[in-house]
Amino acid sequence: MAWSGRLPCFLSCLFIYTLSPCDSHPHWTLPVRPSNDTARKVSDVATEVAAYADVAKQIIELAVFGAAQNRSYRRLADFTDTIGNRVSGSANLEMAIKYMYSALTQNGLDVHLEPVKIPHWVRGKESAEMIVPRVKNLALLGLGSSVGTPPEGIKAEVLVVRSFDELKQRASEARGSRVVFNQPFVSYGETVAYRAFGASEAAKVGAVATLIRSITPFSINSPHTGWQDYQDGVKRIPTACITVEDAEMMWRMSQRGQKIVVRVTMGAKTLPDADSFNVVAEIPGWQYPEQVVLLSGHLDSWDVGQGAMDDGGGAMISWEVLSLIKDLGLRPRRTLRTVLWTAEEQGGVGAQQYYDLHKVNISNFDLVMESDVGTFRPVALQFTGNDAARKVMEEVVKLLAPINTTKLETHAEGTDISPWMQAGVPGASLHVADSRYFWFHHSEGDSMSVQDPQDMNLCSALWAVVSYVVADLQDMLPR
Amino acid sequence: MAWSGRLPCFLSCLFIYTLSPCDSHPHWTLPVRPSNDTARKVSDVATEVAAYADVAKQIIELAVFGAAQNRSYRRLADFTDTIGNRVSGSANLEMAIKYMYSALTQNGLDVHLEPVKIPHWVRGKESAEMIVPRVKNLALLGLGSSVGTPPEGIKAEVLVVRSFDELKQRASEARGSRVVFNQPFVSYGETVAYRAFGASEAAKVGAVATLIRSITPFSINSPHTGWQDYQDGVKRIPTACITVEDAEMMWRMSQRGQKIVVRVTMGAKTLPDADSFNVVAEIPGWQYPEQVVLLSGHLDSWDVGQGAMDDGGGAMISWEVLSLIKDLGLRPRRTLRTVLWTAEEQGGVGAQQYYDLHKVNISNFDLVMESDVGTFRPVALQFTGNDAARKVMEEVVKLLAPINTTKLETHAEGTDISPWMQAGVPGASLHVADSRYFWFHHSEGDSMSVQDPQDMNLCSALWAVVSYVVADLQDMLPR
């Protein structure tokens, strides 16, 4: 996941590259379905949903104990080991899209690519060194969209602050300095403001550069990157994240009254927007193929680690749903569409263009789902929708009793699905036991080693039961 | 702490540099002490120890709640922020010794340095890159005593194994390869054998180099270094630790039948042994100044991180004991001697030379104590001694009831105190809540950020009560 700030402003050049026809899948058989009333009471819906108990068990059996066991994990391992990380604009992201196009096609699914334009920021070479009071290398990661430094770097005395308020109070000390933000981690949603806006806030009081404590509650000297946002009309100064350890060390030094001087060299630059694609694979609905339950994760990652957790896992379970449904010979009433977004990390860039293109058909979007906070042990389904829709979903999650994840929470999350939810389409996201998510997030630690195959089986089962049943109900979710 | 393998063989050139006279400390007052029987029963000892309850409370009050609160933490922060890490043979270690000599002297203690010769291995520049099946930078840390590579590095195909047994079974595949050990972490004591002996075991079957999965149960792409031991008569090949993540990735690749090629460049070399010192500070005993309770930690560290946990914390609480006793105007019957060892990480090199020099007085060593597994929240005192001595110590730890650490465990640990314990001197070590110790151990993550001031207060209080009371009892511990 990226951050939930404002969207970048380079949404342009939108066109359809290829749209595969909806194949008929004549070999797929239809499951038993409840009767076909149109005006129905809550009790009717409960009865209708409860009739899916056997199908739900079949899906869970296949995903968790059957032939599909550990498949999403193996796919994720193969994908991330083969490609590595996949930042917006990179050759790796292009390779990843080709890889997935090929893999989904080989899986017998309807696949097409929808072209979009995405940001192309490159990190270049970067290094940081404390020179005074002693020489120490500082691990750092420049922030997405940051400008670089001159080739010789920027050497400046450091002003360490713990908050934006403290920066304002000490504005007179900031001129010509490098502001180091040593803000404590409160929550990602709150603390990420320092990464996103720290550079512009520091530039407003005359700083020449910033270093920001990584947005994480735990560190093994691990810097975390992420997108940042220059404010219009404010000088653009280089900005990077350093480790919790180094930020705290400089804070202690400053509290002792010690002078601190740091040199940072960053080769970062922004190139012209690049061509990319959202990857779309689907099982067309047998009755209402134009109506869609959309499942998604994003294929891009940051340019560190393997991007297994953020968001390879979300992408793989969204593919796994189609494989499971296909393996069981099922085909829902409506289309089950998996979309693997591009350039989420830059603010949901691919997804915004998808929305702009497809919003004309918004009335056909039944439910939009995204998994982008990890595929650890599933805890609940998060849901955004009106009361009537929630009543339906409360019945649907009861089908997850065999894997003990029958909890329905409020407010789905997901940068990529938020435009749809804001426009009134019901949305769902996966809530997992994510206590360590931000330890690895946007760092070299985002690797296959944090993933667990059994957790991914459970996520896949949940994801598949919910999406299949909603896609197969007689009526779309109320909105 | 280092590893508990065989000792290196460069113990030589031993002499006393300076020995301060035992000052009389006329301003220190004597606490109330129990009566002076010589032949005593267990109940007498219990009564004698119980009479220290008030003194113990004073020590605890001062260390945990009083003016000394957080002092050992602040000292550790100042020390490690100022010096950084301090590997055997480095200028930083020399600086650290000077810093501590000066700080202890300013604290009004009797301080002297005892010269020793220590290993001087230097890391040099090092890098590793997977070239096939794709290009990926591999984080690594060369292992202490490893030879380097030619300047252009060593490029070799990789054989990944999970154990020494598997290496033997696949010996025919090892010739000319780089063996990657991807052994699972079982416990430090068991798994460290791969770091210590992996290179020689691989060389025996014809490997040209090794990469070993870091000895840790948890990783954020963090390589861990440490000492390793070439076997006599076996070819010395370059050896380094890589991250858990990369070892697991190469294992997965090898399981898929993929060819893996890695290039490693290491500038490591061993220079002639260097001059160094054990730092000794003491409060001379008022009655038996020749009899000693020895408190210790090691001042050296690895050349990564800050060496705050391993073992700056142990060194600082061993200093803190003398400060607390002095602040309270106490002076025990026997000498309280704090020794800050040098070159522990190379196998207790400084401590071995201290033992060789002072073992002639072994009958005067009452108790040897070392803290070298972190100064997190104290859980128990670990003790090695005969039954009679244990009975005394069982009474002593009861004095720690105010901080709820009255547990006495068997088997003290500590590379530096083990020669004394093997020779029959009672030993004690600190058992702390160390579940994360090996996450940071010998890595860039060993920093002040893992330390907690209140935990250090508790460790200091425990350390002080135990050492002071034992030093002040009428009789030395039975042995």
From TrEMBL, chains A, B:
Ranges where the Peptidase M28 domain occurs:
278-464
Q: Which UniProt keywords apply?
A: Carboxypeptidase, Endoplasmic reticulum, Glycoprotein, Golgi apparatus, Hydrolase, Lysosome, Metal-binding, Metalloprotease, Protease, Secreted, Signal, Zinc, Zymogen
Pfam families of this UniProt entry? Peptidase_M28 (PF04389)
Give the UniProt subcellular location, in the record's own words.
Endoplasmic reticulum; Golgi apparatus; Lysosome; Secreted
Q: GO molecular function of the protein, one example?
A: carboxypeptidase activity
The principal localisation class reads: endoplasmic reticulum
UniProt keyword Signal present: yes
Q: Name one GO biological process term.
A: peptide catabolic process
Q: Where is the signal peptide?
A: 1-24
Gene Ontology cellular-component terms listed = endoplasmic reticulum; extracellular space; Golgi apparatus; lysosome
The family annotation for this protein states: Belongs to the peptidase M28 family.
Q: How does it assemble?
A: Homodimer. The monomeric form is inactive while the homodimer is active.
Give the protein's recorded name.
Carboxypeptidase Q
Q: Supply the source organism for this entry.
A: Betta splendens
Lineage per the UniProt record: Eukaryota, Metazoa, Chordata, Craniata, Vertebrata
Q: Which gene encodes it?
A: LOC114843662
